[in-house]
Design brief:
Radius of gyration of chain A: 24 Å
CATH topology of chain B: MetI-like fold
Radius of gyration of chain B: 23 Å
CATH class of the largest domain in chain A: Alpha Beta
CATH architecture of chain B: Orthogonal Bundle
CATH superfamily of chain B: MetI-like
Distance between the termini of chain B: 64 Å
Order of helices and strands of chain B: HHHHHHHHHHHHHH
Structural class of chain A: alpha/beta
Shape of chain B: globular
CATH superfamily of the largest domain in chain A: Periplasmic binding protein-like II
Structural class of chain B: mainly alpha
Number of helices of chain A: 15
Oligomer: heterodimer
Number of strands of chain B: 0
Largest sheet of chain B: none
Largest sheet of chain A: 3 strands, antiparallel
Chain lengths: 339, 294
């Protein structure tokens, strides 16, 4: 009896430990970059909770931002993953690293509806319902809808703060779309706070607003900014890279173009694949946040001045329908239990 | 024991609520009164826009001649006049004319406002110790609170542009003129005042003919300080959409354009020195003229 018992319990223990070994098989310690803006913070923290609770990984978050994180991943193979890598900034070296098999673009669209461009506020639509469905080309014929405070005879187009890359792009597009001739004025808001200020001021007072912004951001979510179609196609990389993005003197004849597509990837290293295993990689591949849900989360973070870790819990509690599709049903159960 | 090792912190959610309620209260306030306040400043905006347009659109030789003329009227000093002409010519030559004119416009208006507000407040402070006691902490706050802090409510209330920029500059630049007017009047010789009282001067007469003339050198020092501080705020004002020399400096800071930043920074320095020297000379000259050397 006793011996039987001992053998039995030994078997059970062996079985259990080997079972848990299987569960954790391939998932070791992963380092994920937590970049210094809201959506990246949220994504890193959601990945941490899901991988730890659902897949038994051990996840460490380290601070980062676009260029340093990419350089470190490319040269040193650390951190193992960057959930929100803005790829345009590192286009050439990234493709090279992918070719060499060092890095993988595990997810080419971690957030939908993302990008830069021209937007209007909902207040604009309310005042001028005919704007609905209009392209930028058509809106540009009506500078009188957006009178400038300092010179009401002109239409105000709010561009990018001085010194930002997008300032050059907007200034050149201003020329390309012949906006000066049409009676527009390019407003320099001076800083990010100034740009946000013009939007919140216009939204609060119901005045029309037309200008540059980008997504995903809490501003887009909070004020329901509406993207404006440019009405022209993207006129090619050559026009964009060698003219639109250059200082005014170096771009003599910019062509009308839509804004370049912003490529955002979840980048993982070879080490991530080795340590994380197939299931974890599959999770990263499936993990796509719908744009409006991401904006809702960013509004939540801004309104509550919440950290990424708090927002991750909020996201996992509120939007099970979204993340439930990213993970296996077994992992889902474990994550829910762990919250 | 825990009381001593752990600081009693307000509960996190309550703190967040407090912050939110302040934010929302101000937002409601700006929604309700923002348009009205904006309309109140419309004449000022009109004046500013006109002045800037005038300065930018007039032919440059005329502007330089006018500036030299003003420098001559102010200082009666040939060296200063030539210095002003050369620096403005160099500023234009290095492609900063338009920005420089925008800055001159806003600084001029700003200094006029600071003087019309600051000198009367300084006089009031000098007349009553109680007023001085209440206003001094306010001045301390205006000078030390980081300007970004009051940029937020100004942005929410008035948006971006010249008027909010002007207000931000004035908040920072008005304290020295108030302080020094107050100081100047308080420092006037007691016996001189007694003498004027003995001749039966009324309070207004005393102020107009004795106190202010005697305080003028100190008041002028205050005007100088105000000009300097207003010019120092040009960069911060450009962060809320004020055109001028601050804009290229911001661009230079964000992109590490050393030369661009240096040129525009030096242009601000040149403006400051010209304004300052002319005002100082003027102050000295009217003292000589009145024969009231101290």
């Amino acid at each position: 009896m006793k011996i039987k018992n001992i053998i039995f319990s030994a078997l059970v223990i062996l079985g259990l430990s080997s079972f848990s070994g299987i569960a954790n098989a391939g998932c070791g310690k992963l380092v994920i970059a937590e970049q210094n803006w809201a959506s990246a913070e949220l994504m890193a923290n959601v990945d941490k909770v899901i991988l730890e609770k659902g897949y038994g990984c051990e996840v460490e978050l380290i601070p980062g931002s676009t260029m340093p994180t990419f350089t470190s991943m490319n040269d040193k193979g650390q951190p193992d993953m960057n959930p929100e890598q803005w790829a345009n900034a590192v286009y050439t070296p990234l493709l090279k690293a992918v070719d060499e098999g060092k890095l993988f673009q595990a997810n080419k669209e971690p957030i939908t509806g993302l990008g830069e461009g021209w937007w209007i506020t909902p207040g604009t639509l309310k005042k001028y319902p005919q704007i609905k469905g209009m392209t930028a080309l058509e809106i540009l014929e009506h500078p009188e809808w957006f009178p400038d405070k300092e010179d009401p005879s002109k239409g105000a187009f709010v561009g990018c703060p001085a010194g930002w890359g997008c300032q050059l792009a907007n200034a050149n597009l201003f020329v390309a779309f012949e906006m000066e001739k049409k009676g527009w004025k390019l407003i320099d808001p001076g800083s990010a706070a100034g740009l946000d200020g013009t939007i919140s001021k216009a939204s609060d007072s119901g005045k029309p607003w037309f200008g540059y912004y980008w997504n995903p951001t809490s501003m887009v979510g909070k004020y329901g900014l509406i993207p404006v179609d440019f009405g022209v196609k993207f006129a090619g990389r050559d026009n964009w890279d060698n003219c639109i993005m250059k200082p005014a003197g170096e771009c003599a004849s910019p062509k009308k173009t839509a804004w370049t597509k912003s490529e955002v990837n979840s980048i993982i290293t070879k080490g991530f694949v080795d340590k994380g295993g197939k299931d974890v990689v599959k999770y990263v591949e499936k993990r796509t946040y719908p744009g409006e849900i991401m904006n809702g989360m960013l509004v939540y973070m801004a309104d509550n001045q919440a950290k990424g870790s708090d927002a991750a819990i909020e996201f996992l509690k509120k939007h099970e329908a979204v993340w439930g599709k990213w993970v296996s049903s077994a992992a889902k159960k474990k994550i829910k239990a762990g919250l | 024991m825990e009381l001593f090792t752990k600081f009693p912190v307000m509960e996190r959610s309550a703190l967040a609520e407090l912050r939110k309620s302040i934010d929302f209260a101000f937002r409601d306030f700006s929604r309700a009164y923002g348009d009205g306040i904006e309309a109140f400043f419309d004449p000022l905006l009109f004046f500013l826009v006109r002045l800037e347009k005038l300065l930018i659109n007039s032919p440059w030789p005329i502007i330089i001649i006018i500036i030299c003329g003003l420098a001559w009227i102010g200082s009666r000093n040939w060296k200063l006049v030539i210095g002003a002409a050369v620096s403005f010519f160099l500023i234009g030559y290095f492609g900063m004319w338009k920005d420089c004119m925008a800055t001159v416009a806003i600084i001029t208006v700003c200094v006029i406002i600071c003087m019309t507000v600051g000198i009367p407040v300084g006089v009031l402070m000098a007349r009553s110790d109680r007023t001085e006691r209440t206003i001094l902490p306010v001045l301390d706050m205006m000078q030390t609170i980081p300007s970004f802090v009051y940029l937020i409510p100004i942005l929410m209330l008035l948006g971006i542009g010249k008027v909010p920029g002007l207000i931000a500059i004035c908040i920072y630049a008005v304290p020295p003129i108030i302080r020094l007017t107050n100081l100047g009047i308080r420092e006037v010789d007691k016996e001189t005042i007694e003498a004027s009282e003995a001749f039966g001067a009324t309070k207004i007469q005393k102020l107009r003919t004795v106190q202010i003339p005697l305080a003028l050198p100190t008041v002028f020092a205050g005007v100088n300080q105000t000009i300097m501080m207003a010019l120092a705020m040009v960069v911060i004002a450009s962060m809320i959409g004020v055109k001028g020399l601050g804009v290229p400096i911001l661009r230079a800071v964000l992109n590490q354009y050393l030369a661009l930043g240096l040129f525009n920074g030096l242009a601000i320095v040149a403006l400051a020195i010209i304004f300052d020297r002319v005002a100082q000379e003027y102050g000295r000259r009217i003292q000589k003229h009145r024969g009231l050397k101290r």
